[in-house]
Design brief:
By secondary structure, this protein is of the alpha/beta class. It folds into 2 domains: 13-362, no CATH class; 412-548, STAS domain (Transcription Regulator spoIIAA, 2-Layer Sandwich), CATH 3.30.750.24. It contains 21 helices and 9 strands. It has helices at 16-40, 45-50, 54-62, 74-86, 92-114, 126-149, 159-168, 175-194, 200-215, 242-247, 249-274, 280-296, 306-314, 321-336, 346-358, 363-372, 374-411, 460-473, 493-508, 520-528, 542-548, and strands spanning 70-71, 303-304, 416-421, 431-435, 438-442, 446-451, 480-484, 512-516, 536-537. The strands form 3 sheets. A 5-stranded mixed sheet has the order 3-6-7-8-9, with helices on one face. Strands 1-2 form a two-stranded antiparallel sheet. The chain has a two-stranded antiparallel sheet with strand order 4-5. Helix 4 crosses helix 6 and helix 8 packs across helix 15.
């Protein structure tokens, strides 16, 4: 069993060169993307670069995954910006509130890790994630399209409002910005097919800087990144009011839940693919540590980067060493190379981010969902549209409600199977019947019914009515009803009332009610709810089993 050794786990003399080279590749990918995502979040470029240093290094010393890369991503950037602007935050306060938001998210991750809540990853279903991330991606794509066209859009406002602003501003298109963006997109897309190992984002960034400087395109209206503050990140707790901290809780919770679901899913996927184990709760602690340090070092919320993790996997990396190499490179850039960033053309940044997030739109996934389950696909589409119309938090909340409604709808209509009914007129004392290709035996006049669902408030009345319908449709001579409860895991108070009602109705109809194959935990629950007084539990009443001669094995 591999002993945990932090970020150096899995590093050997044979692979250290490959892992170091993968780190250089990761640095080349991360610098332009992190700058772009920082701008997407409405923050200075340094906020994206700071995330590559202390948060990433701390993450590598705690995380159990050998491959998942921690970094700001498109979904987090869009959620940070939209949630903060919805609170009316702007200017310098935006950076401070974003840092506080990351600290809150980090604290939530740590609480989840201590309480061992790794299972929460399943609470965000695949349709919700597809729709939520897709909606955010389209929102980002809109803002990056404006950069690529050289159109300045005022910050703030929902998707429809911003799309309308862009449409009425098309006459302001800067042809140099548009041309540079189209060339950048072409290089990025063609390069991905020809040689995916090459950091094409860095290539187009360098070309963009050279062309902008050579042709003096800034004078022609091409926007550039501008001066970037140098030096390492400084540590400080955001100075905001208690009310401001509380106002950030909903958005921090949304960031945490999305990262839990996506991060643990990506971690498990690569671990299974490459034959090693991960520990979900340790990974939650790692995300918590990274977000706390991100907030304290003037950055913003970080999570698992699917695209960068995929790039490292394709490069053959199986350790966290590339993240350490990237952290060293980012620190050197902040110390000695920020002057090189000033001439980066904004349209090129927009092209890099647009190409990166295009794959997150999820149209292919939604099409696949439509063929598998239309109801779940509609949940994903609703979340997609909800993010665009009501904002990320509103869209996520709406999707949660729709998922719960869909779950309740499914659970409220359990299938009730007739396992057997022997006629009193049978020539033999035991009648043989066929159920699901199995031969079973029952005494004359005994109906055996089965359903596989917890009995609770949403389906108790439905189950009771289903039992009545089958009793009414049974041939004459039925004298007992047996409920096979092997597939029933729980029952609540409302469900117990429904069971008492059906027992009373059966008594009035001259039939008895019995339970078969009851789980031990459920038997205790039935006794606590007073349901065993008027029924025979086959698991404990041998006389009832012999009398009815039901083969339940």
């Amino acid at each position: 069993m591999d002993r945990w050794r932090g970020p150096l786990r899995g590093v050997t003399r044979e692979n250290v060169g490959r892992e170091t080279l993968a780190g250089v590749t990761l640095l080349a990918i991360a610098i332009p993307l992190n700058i772009g995502y920082a701008q997407t979040a409405g923050l200075p470029a340094t906020a994206g670069l700071y995330a590559l240093i202390f948060p990433a290094v701390a993450y590598t010393f705690v995380v159990s995954s050998r491959q998942v890369v921690v970094s700001p991503d498109a979904a987090a950037a869009a959620l940070v910006f939209s949630s903060l602007t919805a609170l009316g935050v702007a200017g310098e306060n935006l950076a401070m509130m974003a840092a506080a938001q990351a600290i809150l998210s980090g604290a939530m991750f740590l609480v989840a890790a201590v309480l061992r809540l790794g299972f929460l990853a399943s609470f965000l279903s695949k349709p919700i994630l597809i729709g939520f991330v897709g909606g955010l991606a389209l929102d980002i794509l809109l803002s990056q399209t404006a950069k690529m066209l050289g159109i300045h859009l005022p910050r703030g406002g929902e998707f429809i409002e911003q799309a309308s602003r862009l449409l009425v501003s098309l006459e302001e298109i800067n042809t140099w910005s548009l041309g540079m963006s189209l060339v950048a997109v072409a290089i990025l897309l063609a390069g991905r097919r020809l040689a995916s190992i090459v950091p094409w984002a860095l290539v187009v960034l360098v070309l963009g800087v050279l062309i902008t400087d050579w042709l003096d395109l800034e004078a022609s209206g091409v926007a550039v990144l501008g001066e970037v503050a140098g030096g390492p990140p400084t540590f400080a707790v955001p100075h905001i009011s208690i009310g401001a901290w509380l106002s950030l809780v909903p958005s921090a919770f949304a960031l945490t839940m999305v990262t839990i679901a996506e991060g643990l899913l990506v971690s498990r996927s690569y671990a299974e693919q490459n034959g090693y184990r991960t520990r979900p709760n340790r990974d939650l602690f790692a995300f918590g540590t990274a977000n706390l340090l991100a907030g304290l070092s003037s950055s913003f919320a970080v999570g698992s980067s699917t695209s960068r993790t995929a790039a490292m996997d394709a490069a053959g990396s199986r350790t966290q060493l590339p993240t350490l190499v990237t952290a060293c490179g980012a620190l050197l850039l902040l110390l000695f190379g920020t002057s090189m960033l000033a001439m980066i053309p904004t349209p090129v940044i927009g092209a890099i981010v647009a190409v990166a997030v295009y794959r997150l739109l999820g149209f292919a996934e939604l099409k696949s969902l439509w063929g598998q389950s239309r109801s779940e696909c509609l949940v994903g589409i609703s979340c997609f549209v909800g993010v665009l119309v009501f904002g990320p938090l509103g869209g996520l909340g709406m999707a949660f409600v729709l998922s719960l409604v869909n779950l309740a709808r499914r659970a409220s209509h359990p299938q009730i199977d007739m396992l057997g009914l022997a006629d009193e007129s049978s020539a033999e004392s035991d009648a043989v019947f066929v159920a699901r290709n199995d031969l079973r035996q029952t005494a004359p006049g005994v109906m055996v019914l089965r359903f596989a669902a917890p009995v609770f408030f949403a389906n108790g009345a439905e189950i009771a009515e289903g039992i009545k319908e089958r009793v009414r449709a049974a041939p004459p001579g039925a004298r007992a009803v047996v409920l096979d409860l092997e597939g029933v895991s729980d029952i609540d108070v409302t469900g117990a009332e429904s069971m008492r009602e059906i027992a009373t109705w059966l008594e009035r109809s001259g039939l008895s009610l019995s339970f078969s194959r009851v789980r031990s935990e459920l038997r205790v629950r039935l006794a606590h709810l007073g349901l065993t007084a008027r029924t025979a539990l086959f698991a404990t009443n041998r006389e009832a089993v012999d009398a009815l001669r039901v083969d339940v094995e």
